[in-house]
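#struct-pred

JT: dropping the chains for the assembly here, can someone run the whole complex?
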Amino acid sequence: MSAPPLKLALLGCGSVGSQVVRLLREQADDLTARVGAPIELVGVAVRRPELQRDAEVPAELLTTDAAGLVARDDVDLVIEVIGGIEPSRALILAALENGASVVTANKALLAEDGSTLFAAAEKAGRDLYFEAAVAGAIPILRPLRESLAGDRVTRVLGIVNGTTNFILDKMDTLGSGFAEVLEEAQALGYAEADPTADVEGYDAAAKAAILASLAFHTRVTAADVYREGISEVSAADVASAREMGCVVKLLAICELREGPDGPAVSARVHPAMIPRSHPLASVREAFNAVFVESEAAGQLMFYGPGAGGAPTASAVLGDLVTVARNRLNDVRGAGESAYADLDVLPMGETETRYHVAIDVDDRAGVLAQVAQTFAAHQVSIQTVRQEGHGDDAQLVVVSHRAADSALAATVDTLRKLDFVHDVSSVMRVEGDF
Amino acid sequence: MSAPPLKLALLGCGSVGSQVVRLLREQADDLTARVGAPIELVGVAVRRPELQRDAEVPAELLTTDAAGLVARDDVDLVIEVIGGIEPSRALILAALENGASVVTANKALLAEDGSTLFAAAEKAGRDLYFEAAVAGAIPILRPLRESLAGDRVTRVLGIVNGTTNFILDKMDTLGSGFAEVLEEAQALGYAEADPTADVEGYDAAAKAAILASLAFHTRVTAADVYREGISEVSAADVASAREMGCVVKLLAICELREGPDGPAVSARVHPAMIPRSHPLASVREAFNAVFVESEAAGQLMFYGPGAGGAPTASAVLGDLVTVARNRLNDVRGAGESAYADLDVLPMGETETRYHVAIDVDDRAGVLAQVAQTFAAHQVSIQTVRQEGHGDDAQLVVVSHRAADSALAATVDTLRKLDFVHDVSSVMRVEGDF
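RK: done, full complex below.
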């Protein structure tokens, strides 16, 4: 209790940063007891100090000189909640070089260039923690990295983007189309004016890269992650999922698979149908959840708020307590672990399952020809359902697992058949049913 | 990688211990990479070495001399999976005194006398980790202790006993009575021949004590935990819950409440009705889940298998990797934290809500008199439902929150009213609805 204060610099003071300031103040006594020394906020770097902020940040702490703040020789700890690649990367690297331990929520930076940051932390002998970068307040990185360190993780399925889950949940419950629900989400503040990063899966892909890296002890970057968003998901897709007892979710999927040269990683983000009985199916609105399968532990799920100022600040402060304790005891926590160094499979070589709805002529022989098309691409069929007749005749096919490229080629061939009017829904399927 | 091996002694080789041996062998390379040194199993203490075991434990490692094994001067790490109070306590204390770090799954011992163990670990400067003691493979202690260290946990609601959840789930889905389902659970291996520890809530109470201690930084023992089991839960209770859109679960409830002298802890285990919309309501069969509410993070849930050899071994090995890394770096992880030292409220002073079904005479004025009885005990009513008539007339009352003693006294008074034939169901209610 009598240890001198650890000095903290905060980079960024938006919705997360201002909640960090609030919690530092309100929980000061508890934090001191848990760390073993007080944490003293010595500076807050912001771009526009004139802005009104949620927390009462003492005006004398505000500075526009972030580089000068991290270069101070009395700073022990740095929290980075600016986001984006630059200046965050330069500031984090400078902080580490200057001997500070760093906590960041910056998923984009970690997914693009984590290895530079990890190397700098290693070289400096300091901690770099980032629980808040994936799934907000939900403790998922620490369980993956530490709790499951004696087990073999085989699969991570995550709903890691609240905006897209909100949209897909509304499409499912209201039967509405994508564009209509997106507008509602924007009005409610669940989607940004430019929703691209969320809706097209960029945000989820960055998180998938981080999850895959930790789960499989291999460097996976955002560029390694196959990515498809939800803007092409139609009300018909959602209705078709419902018919099958499924729901459509945007999933971040990280799997350990058998590749051509031994075990390999598949990392991808795309909409998928999952059975309503799957624990992820009941994740509603803007909540996040991460489902983990491992060899010994079996199936685990972690559920909670995936975004928001206070939840994200909770994750940042949990990391801060750990790195502050480490700092006080002059030790480092477990750093990056990339020893497995597995190959990342291209999407085409990843095995998936497809759900395909095909509008066809209502005449004899059609089903046989469709089945033959699948067989010609080495894709075996699990179920076929015939629906409607006359102009409304439709075949709904669910395949067994096959190479994604073979499934895509099958759909291309189907589109060219003369009795096929339209392939009206194509979507991957995850989970057993 | 070139560090010399860390030497491990295993105490107990039942369903968990034999899975630990298997994983140590199968994951040896991964464990070495994650720890930074190989882990070498140097002895396995068992009572009956002649038993056939799941894993092929090399015969030369088996010994009946557990005390001699932990006294060896080359042992760095000890795993205790014997269970029970003695000889486990003596062995763990001897191991710590001898300079070994310890991983245990022993909930009963931790809940009865954790403080002795924590003090010994502190004195020895070694780690004592115990993730496997609560909710099997589900990482819950580490998130509570570390991930949420910068937040204020206000409430933990856990389904932490698989046997009772299996029984209550079957009573709900099949409409069967307790005795009938217990027999089925025993036949399937979900319940022991003597089911007392599970069915009467002793197992859950030990886990509640551990959860409350970690969540509120206060020493809570099993004796501090109010406990009611499920043997009195009737098919009528379950049906009554269903009528209200609820399901009956055995909950371990740990709350931060305002006590007479400031913040205090309430820790209790009892059956409760929760709304079907609550995330815990969908926890089926023998699965476990822990629902955590905290000031900043909001609502989190952790879900997975709560028992079984392999899942529990996964949690043990996760801890083993951490304590082995700490050992290698000659540091200690976060030890016990009891700085808050809050009072534990007696059950009578804890605020709860009751659901009460009362068989009554079907005549005017009865509802008024029942309402008056609640009012006389300072208990306010949320809803009253009248059902049936004539001999089947029933009032179903759900109260607002009130002191548990006031609610219990209300029920006592109700039983004595001349128009009351029977109070046919009394159960506490948790969750908003």
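JT: nice. Residues 6-136+309-328 of chain B form a domain with the Rossmann fold fold (CATH 3.40.50.720). Chain B touches chain A through 56 residues (CB under 8 Å).
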